[in-house]
Amino acid sequence: MNTSQKQTSETVSTVFPRSVLSVNREEFGKPEDNPDPQCSPLKLIEKDGKPLPEGLHGHVFIISAAGSVDSKNSPSTDVVFPSADGYTPFYNGDGIIYRFDFDNLPEGIFVNTRLAKTPCYYADVATQKIAPDRNNLIFENRGIMRMSLQLGIRNQLNTGFLPLKFSNGEPDRLLVTWDIGRPYEIDTKTLELATPVGKNEEWRPLNPLLADLPLQPPFPFPLVQSSAHPCFDYKTGEMFNVNSGRSLSTFISQLRPLIYGVLDFINIFKKPTDTPPIAKMPASPKNFFKGLLETGKRFVQWLYNLLQFFNIFNNFVDIVCWDGTGNLKKWNVTYKGCPLRIQQSMHQIGLTENYVVLVDTAFKFLLEEILPAPSKKKYENVEKFLRNWLDRPQLPDTYVYIVSREDLKDGRKKVEAKKVVIPRETTHFLTDYSDSGNKITLHMAHVCAWDVAEWIRAIDFDDTDEKPLSNKLPPMYGMTVGPLDISRMGCYVIDAENAKVVRSDLTSVYQDNSPGQQAEKKEFCQYTWGPALYAYQDNQPTEKFQDIYWSFFGAWEDILTEHGLKMYAPYKYREVPVPELLELTKKGIKSNLLRLHIKPLESVKDGENRLEIQDIYQFETDYFVNSPQFIPSKTGVDGSSTNGYIMCVVYHGTDDQPDNGNQIWIFDATNLKQGPLCKLWHPQLNFGITVHTTWLPKIAKRTATYNIPVEQDYQDLVAQQPAEIQELFEKEIYPHFKSKNL
């Protein structure tokens, strides 16, 4: 039962915008850039008739998950509801890239969109059409992943960007990324995928049992884990990423498919009681032996996975380096002489002048979560039992691993990492490029008891529950659960050679920023609940951060779950007692956008906090802000870290409003508290939950020669497949790339 969601719309004081639950999959662009757009670029409308700020220029890129080819859709439109099945998180879906053009302000601001169409995207589309009854061939959502039992794992490219510029003479290049797959380079003008970074053979699968199951050939689309936030060094012209794998709790994760296989096998013998007489005939021998064979196959795979569980050497972390033209360089990372084991994920990595910073981030990536039950009612009780038994909270501390770039030399295969433990968990962080005196500075958003890898599912409700917010609003299926404690923003100085923290600064948990223990009647800070995404003046490289802009979720009663409360009630660093947490969440804490100022170390006195929240805009009740992006002002020349604008996505209400319940707001970066300078929208612009962003001063047709042809990249894997899969590639996948020499 989800007690928070039993409330009716009359008793809930704040309502999370339901407009995040839908997204338009239409592509908008010029015919010369995109041969298949539904219409021309959209010209945004200013909501209040205000003039556009004259200093806007360049191009903002935003990415979002946009559901899948089989997502529930609105009749006769391209609007889909990706999480309507009650099992799929919002971050499972094809990436859709939005580009906002500010290069011709007198004419207006225009938006181009395009889906990230990888080879596995075309396989997904094709199998839904030609093999809808082949459950082992079609792709289905499995938690964060979308997978096929024969084809493998989708690379959905729906999370982030990385700008690149390997030489001054070339246009800006741009990668699109996510955690479960190779990054791809895109053409900044057409938004088309240009090439993956690295051949298939250059990336190691997450785990052998997910790449090469017994009794079947290796997946043509293997599961590869990288980082959604690789780094680029503008001084040396090197891109750094990671390729990681784990033995995981493989044995435990395979209990699910085994249990469901046994249940399906038992169902063969069960006589239906609610079907016509003709349907009560015993199962045919063909179906009986088919079920027996399938159950036997699953048992063999389960036994194989059990053996893999004891192989600790499946853990690995490789640092990947790329120069934009050649093959990937890789170094295997060890810690105390053993393979480095990442327990959650490396959603983000950091880079300084002399070090690569690897962080075990609080976006837990467990097979228990990526292989949930099929979305069938008959499995709900079993799935609820397994989730309660197998699920675990994210790590309460942050494990930081430091690798010297000096050790990343040609001819060397292994490098040793040093470890630092920082109290409280983090998903996103930034590093100063400067590491003078071997001192690394990390700027962390501590997502305290906020588990963004947990999402609201149908099993969070009992059949006897009153439906969320009565029948007036849909449930928040697919949305990440809300924060279960107040979060902290931190700044840490690490002695890299001795692997220890030498200075730490944290924002206060109290409204008046006072230190010390909680005093009677002290109010908790309203601003640091659920730090989501960041923005900053992107002067490359950023030697020392002075100001970072953060968007915050706030706290909402209708995205609180009993399962989450149960896991995080005993949170190690709890600041807000659970009863008070429930009261605050019921009342509602507003979403906000703020500027965190980091005082220069040399300017602070002993005992003085380096961190200061200097500017805040709190959104209206029932409004939610996401995806902030800094746009430097073209009229300013002072180089200040606040000289520009903050563009962000703002959600409100439901998608049946003229603006679909989402808008683009633009703030003066020097004065957030005055409110937005303008609000932009379009009736055809319908975002889902957007994620990360970037800004480029100019766009241009891609001229780089680096290219990995698709057919050449997959031919060895495809040659091992059955004839039907080979035919699928020949007829439904390769033709989309042959004309582009891909």
What would you note in describing this structure?
Helices cover 15% and strands 27% of the residues. It has eleven helices and 38 strands. Strands 16, 17, 18, 19, 20 and 24 form a six-stranded mixed beta sheet that branches. β26 (426-431) and β27 (439-446) form a beta hairpin. It is globular and about 70 Å long. The chain starts with 22 loop residues before the first strand and ends with a helix.
Count of discrete alpha- or pi-helical segments spanning 4 or more residues: 11
Q: State the total count of DSSP E strands.
A: 38
The major beta sheet can be summarized as:
6 strands, mixed
- Are there runs of 5+ residues with pLDDT below 50, and where? 1-12, 249-258, 271-283, 464-471
Proportion in β-strands:
25-35%
What is the general shape? globular
| Percent of residues in helices | 10-25%
Q: How far is the first residue's CA from the last residue's CA?
A: 50 Å
Q: Could you tell me the mean pLDDT?
A: 87
- Tell me the Rg in angstroms: 25 Å
Tell me the structural class: alpha+beta
Layout: helices, strands, pairs:
Layout: E1 23-24, E2 42-43, E3 45-46, E4 59-65, E5 72-73, E6 79-81, E7 95-101, E8 110-115, H1 119-130, E9 140-142, E10 145-148, E11 152-153, E12 160-164, E13 173-177, E14 184-186, E15 193-196, E16 231-233, E17 238-245, H2 250-253, H3 255-267, H4 285-309, E18 316-322, E19 329-335, E20 338-339, E21 349-351, E22 355-360, H5 367-370, H6 380-390, E23 397-404, E24 414-416, E25 418-423, E26 426-431, E27 439-446, E28 488-495, E29 500-506, E30 531-535, E31 547-552, H7 562-568, H8 578-587, E32 592-598, E33 611-618, E34 623-632, E35 644-652, E36 662-668, E37 678-681, E38 690-696, H9 710-719, H10 723-733, H11 735-738
Parallel strand pairs: 19-24
Antiparallel strand pairs: 1-6, 2-8, 3-37, 4-7, 4-38, 5-6, 7-8, 9-10, 10-11, 12-13, 13-14, 14-15, 16-17, 17-18, 18-19, 19-20, 21-22, 22-23, 23-25, 26-27, 27-28, 28-29, 30-31, 31-32, 32-33, 34-35, 35-36, 36-37
Helix pairs in contact: 1-10, 3-4
